[in-house]
Write a structure and sequence with these properties.
Number of helices: 10
CATH topology of the largest domain: Alkaline Phosphatase, subunit A
Keywords: Signal
Shape: globular
Protein name: DUF1552 domain-containing protein
Largest sheet: 7 strands, mixed
Radius of gyration: 22 Å
Number of strands: 7
Structural class: alpha/beta
CATH architecture of the largest domain: 3-Layer(aba) Sandwich
Organism: Paraglaciecola algarum
Oligomer: single chain
Strand order of the largest sheet: 3-4-1-5-6-2-7
Pfam families: HXXSHH
Order of helices and strands: HEHEHEHHHHEHHEEEH
């Protein structure tokens, strides 16, 4: 099989809402990834690849009450429970994937139900107690990456429309290390591509020397931090421990990067992506679809098996809050508060449908791509979690949630499952982690697993 780079017209990805991501299987990309792993690092054995993709959107969804004229058409959740449910206009784009996804209603994180709603996004994948000294705990994506990341160049990729960390109350990321420290998100298609497939400047020896300098700096810092630990208050010790954990995490990343220095990255032609796109001036469609396309390519090349993408942060500020304006609607935050105005629920539902269409395009792309490392499609071997930490009007209960894919990982779909409020969302996260093979018996405040979505 040839290793030449595959090119195709980028307009293929943007023709329509649900077919905007019709990426072919690109066997040459997958083959180059396998060939590059001939030394054994990252070489995936057939049938052993298990992936996790976590997708977040903030500020909830349209949920008109039963007596409202918009209730029938613009209710985000299906009206019926079980397998005999129908899609509303908010989610009709997902109808072709009914047997590959499950709706889940009623779940939420009990420990964040009473906090400021705009702060809940950072707890989507952790369910942590905000009152703990660290403020957060390890997120499910990072726990999976601890066990699955050793076989890929990147243990995880954290993406977000805003990029960076944000602030403590309104984070731009949903990925948290074991110390509770936030992990910065990569904020644009160009940055994601450069991280995954960009070629470092300089020869190998100069790069290796740079790694050595980085390690020397880290080695010099740690003894000083240990000495400082004996001369500060207990409160400051807690903060210092978090900093030390961050330094050790950086040290691990340096070691990981050096380990892969002699393994060439997959040859992926950047012309097949739209990388330099302004989501406001050019419109959010190209921006969001390009991020989804890069996730697909990261999985296809086995560059990583864990991705977290915060499409819309839980905040009235930020870039993504303006996405609806680019398609003729009020900004996202105003829509969520303007539900009781004339056409308010309809506007909100229209934007829900827009976000769902982008998600449906990603599922289509994943479902139509044969997995180079396992039987079935990429979607069959990837668990996709899609949701928000607020339902309507910033209510941090009854999260809108969809779980898709994972057919070869023991998941069963085709139904809308409703859960009592006493069941924490951590039960869902624990279920997904176990199906991915992560050796955990509990996660956060979990009380058990959800058999409803298991085959």
């Amino acid at each position: 099989m040839s290793n030449k780079v595959v090119n195709f017209n980028r307009r293929t990805f943007l023709k329509s809402a649900t077919s905007s991501l019709l990426l072919p299987a690109l066997p040459s990309i997958a083959t180059s990834a396998v060939n590059a792993s001939s030394n054994g690092i990252g070489l995936a054995e057939k049938g052993q690849v298990k992936r996790l993709c976590c997708l977040f959107f903030g500020m909830g969804v349209s949920l008109p009450p039963k007596d409202h004229v918009a209730h029938k058409d613009w209710q985000w959740f299906p009206h019926e429970y079980g397998k005999d449910y129908s899609f509303s206009k908010s989610n009709i784009a997902l109808e072709p994937f009914k047997q590959q996804l499950s709706f889940l209603s009623g779940l939420s994180h009990p420990r964040t139900r009473d906090i400021f709603a705009h702060s809940t996004g950072g707890y989507f994948l952790s369910g942590a107690d905000p009152l703990t000294p660290a403020g957060n705990s390890i997120s499910a994506d990072q726990l999976h990456a601890m066990y699955a990341g050793s076989q890929t160049r990147y243990p995880y990729i954290t993406m977000g429309s805003e990029g960076g960390l944000g602030d403590f109350r309104r984070p731009n990321t949903m990925s948290y290390a074991g110390s509770g420290q936030p992990i910065p998100s990569i904020g644009s298609p160009r940055e994601v591509f450069n991280e995954l497939f960009g070629v470092p400047s300089g020869d190998k020896e100069s790069i290796r020397q740079a790694f050595g300098r980085d390690r020397s700096i880290l080695d010099a810092i740690l003894p000083d931090l240990k000495r400082l630990n004996h001369a500060i208050s207990n409160d400051d010790k807690s903060k210092l421990e978090q900093y030390v954990s961050a330094v050790r995490s950086l040290e691990t990343r340096v070691e990981k990067a050096e380990e892969w220095l002699d393994v060439p990255k997959p040859h992926v032609d950047e012309k097949q992506f739209i990388l330099d796109v302004d989501p406001i001036q050019d419109g959010p469609t190209q921006f969001i679809d390009s991020m989804y396309q890069l996730i697909h390519t990261a999985f296809l090349t086995d560059s990583t098996r864990t991705v977290a993408y915060q499409k819309v942060k839980e905040s009235p500020g930020g870039l993504a809050n303006r996405f609806p304006e680019a398609i003729g609607l009020p900004n996202h935050h105003d829509m969520s508060h303007g539900f009781n105005k004339e056409g308010g629920y309809e506007n909100w539902g229209t934007y829900d449908a827009y976000l769902t269409e982008r998600f449906a395009g990603f599922l289509k792309q994943m479902a139509e791509t044969a997995d180079p490392y396992a039987e079935g499609s990429l979607l069959d071997n990837t668990i996709v979690l899609y949701g928000s930490t607020t339902s309507t009007v910033h209510n941090p209960r009854n999260y809108p949630l969809i779980v898709a894919g994972g057919r070869n990982l023991g998941l069963s779909h085709g139904a809308h499952h409703h859960f009592a409020e006493s069941i924490p969302m951590s039960n869902l996260l624990l279920t997904l982690l176990q199906q991915l093979g992560t050796p955990v018996d509990s996660f956060s405040d979990s009380t058990g697993t959800l058999s409803h979505i298991l085959a």
